[in-house]
Fold this sequence. Notes:
Chain A: Pfam families: DUF1800. Chain A: It comes from Frigidibacter albus. Chain A: InterPro entries: DUF1800. Chain A: This is DUF1800 family protein. The structure holds two protein chains of two kinds. Chain A starts with a helix and ends with a helix. Chain A is built from 26 helices and four strands. In chain A, a hairpin with a 3-residue loop joins strand 1 (about 225-230) and strand 2 (about 230-235). Chain A folds into two domains: about 1-20 and about 40-150 and about 335-460, no CATH class; about 150-325, no CATH class. Chain A has helices spanning about 5-10, 30-40, 40-45, 50-75, 80-110, 115-125, 135-145, 155-160, 165-170, 195-200, 210-220, 260-270, 275-290, 295-305, 315-320, 325, 335-345, 350-355, 360-370, 390-395, 395-410, 410-415, 420-430, 435-440, 445-455, 455-460, and strands at about 225-230, 230-235, 245, 250-255. In chain A, the strands form two sheets. A two-stranded antiparallel ribbon of chain A has the order 1-2. Chain B has two domains: about 30-185 and about 230-380, Alkaline Phosphatase, subunit A (3-Layer(aba) Sandwich), CATH 3.40.720; about 185-225, no CATH class. In chain B, strands 1, 5, 6, 7, 8, 9, 10, 11 and 12 form a nine-stranded mixed β-sheet that branches. A three-stranded antiparallel β-sheet of chain B has the order 2-4-3. In chain B, strand 3 (about 80) and strand 4 (about 85-90) form a beta hairpin. At the A-B interface, helix 4, helix 21, helix 24, helix 25 and helix 26 of A face strand 7, helix 7 and helix 8 of B.
Amino acid sequence: MPSVSTIAAIRFGSGLVPREAGPAPAPLDAAALLGDLTAPDTMAARFPVITRPEAEELARQVRPARRAAQAGTEAGDPEPELAYRALRQQLRVATNRGAQLTMARTVAAEIGFRERLVQFWGDHFATRARGPELGPMAQVFADEAIRPHLAGRFPDMLKAAALHPMMLVYLDQTSSVGPNSASGRKRGGLNENLAREMLELHTLGVGGSYAQADVRQLALLLTGLSWTYRAGWHFDPTKAEPGAETVLGEAYGGADPADVTEIHAALEDLALHPETGRHLARKLAVHFTSDDPDAGMVEAMAAAYAEGQGALMPVYAAMLEHPAAWDTFGAKARQPQDFLVAALRALGVTGEQVAALEHGPANNHLLGPLRLMGQPFASPPGPDGWPEAASDWINPQGLAARIEWAMKGPRFWVNPLPDPRRLLRAALDDAAGERLAWAVGRAETVAEGTGLILASPDFNRR
Amino acid sequence: MLNRRLFLQGSALIGCSAAAHPLLSTATFAAAPGENRLVVIILRGAMDGLDLVQPRGDAGFARYRPGLAALAVGAEDGALPLDDFWAAHPGLAKLMPLWAAGELGFVHATSTPYRDKRSHFDGQDLLEAGTGMDVPVGMAREGWLNRMLQGMPGVQSQTAFSVGAEEMLILSGAAPSASWAPASRLDLSAQARLLLDHVYHDDPLFRDAATEAVEISADMAPGDKMGGDANRQPLKLAEFAAARLREETRIASFSVGGWDTHRNQPGAMKAGLRRLSETVLALKDGLGPVWGQTTVLAMTEFGRTVRENGSMGTDHGTGGAMLVAGGAVRGGRVHGRWPGLAEADLYAGRDLMPTSDVRAWAGWAMRGLYGLDAGLIEGSVFPGLQMGSDPGLLL
Lengths: 462, 395
């Protein structure tokens, strides 16, 4: 079994980086990982992403530009069509830029536990842009709803994420109208999608003790939440169902006019429900340690969640202080995005190098490989996010794409490639197995030696 | 059959023997259920069925489409006559010999149960999930081809193949299926293969996945790797699918995009249909003798507006068309009940009225090809579907 410090870097962080000359850095342990979360978030400032007003402004332009393009074509004027195409390209660039900066942050992070949690919670609240105009908003979501709360309280993250424009659009809340509201009496109706996923995915979990009636009542309570390109996020009382709603036996709302505080109160209670604590504890344990995690560890994490009233730091601490977090090393496979980032770190690539790429090369060398490995950026298959099992990722297609990239991809980033024996040390330290070390010494070329290391189970497991 | 000689080549290089390589002797593939082949092509972007196969005998057609239907049937660059009523888009010219041979047909005025919102994302999700409007759109995680596999005996890991880097919801689910993007061809030197084999030796997950990947890749002809030419990509997918279907695979699915023709539809349809025609021909050529046992269904998420818009295009609609091909289909005809284009016959006053559920045609195809029980099809493959009587799509 490798040292605690190596496991910490590979299993909970974004991967090892080459050691520089000079004094050895302090070894990592549970305390160092937790310290990564309480330290200031320097990566967000070092690689700033698009802001919400900028993203909304881009989205706002799409419909008028499309209409102008149609009108222009009818009138024989090609200019509006060209402007529309340019806008679409601008959206593509902005969307991909977000992916690039997310990876730049993870490559540059000292330990990377924070970036891993950004991804974990972003996946817990999985969203996907519905249409190209919302592509850039994915980064806004991560920076507004996830990053500020991942070392704070889960109830706050829930309110920020589940009510964010990205989520409201993705789960159809923007088209949900209370049947007896002022708007609903004219047209439109209730949409239960967000309410259902809040209970099933975001809080209690699919086995939770809620019934269809709770889904419907929560859906009625959520009416009024709105977001439009023009007006941005707002609460529209004319769409809110009048009267109180009862969710899991508690009554909420009933104020006239309705407002968002009633929704916040319900989310606070849902977040602090004991089943939510167990659901989150198990999900974290599955993501970081094993598809079948140690029951005692999950229990300790859930207890910490209850005791801390939804504070997340004690939950992480309960996981990291449990022996099962360390002695199951290797049970998980790095997901493609983590794999790519860990490889770049091991190769000594800097975050600035990643951030500096133009649109085309970023597409070819970051986003394209991720697609082939089975994890197109910010495009999870559904609201329940990416699969967790190693076998979902290490399949013929996914592994072939990893091997291909491992053999041929690194040359673009590092020229000349480092000596494979040195890379082996940088990438895996004392986690390199004997078989890998034997094979690396027999590779015919530096590129193949590099490829063997990065394609190995040693490097792809954690 | 697959061979493992590529692994053995050069084993002398580092002195390994085959016996030391358990992955050289595992038998991954077994016989598949039956000999019939099914290929489902998802046409992403909502293909205009009224342009694909044109109801020239309906007086409404020319009225709604003065620009798109300006050229007379049979004129240079004009539509190709199929019979007294129907004409095919000129982009299908290369497929006309198949029409004549009864190996190409169409289903008109068909659609999924998706209505009114006309979103590509949701429409494609519903098309691939095979569910009705009772399941929240976009939330399905299992496709109907996968549920079909779940009801078939003897399904192996390569019985069904999803081809291309694109996610294919239609094959996702509990039943095993393989996926491969021809762009992922593994180009490894003999030495790299051997060393990788050594590194994966003790890890069955990596060993099995790599073995299968190397085998699939080795089966591809040299130079098969897809280039950047978007026009040739569907062709490559078809060639790869056909190669697998010649072996153990019985079911394959891939997608062909580029049908969202809001503007300049004549150019876009011509290019798109030429691509689709070449794709079908690549399947036929690649399948060779088993083309006779093959059914190809090319379906789209919804049709487009009956009226052309002001940009020589059409907008999102409802009823559309499906293209069917293969030696197992009853071609040379346009299937389905034609609803007519009179104002009162349109859906919501703007779209072609669907007169059949696209799932029923697929259901009858799987019943004919694999003998699936109607109760299973209506109960689990396409929950809630009423298949009705046999529409005679297959021979």
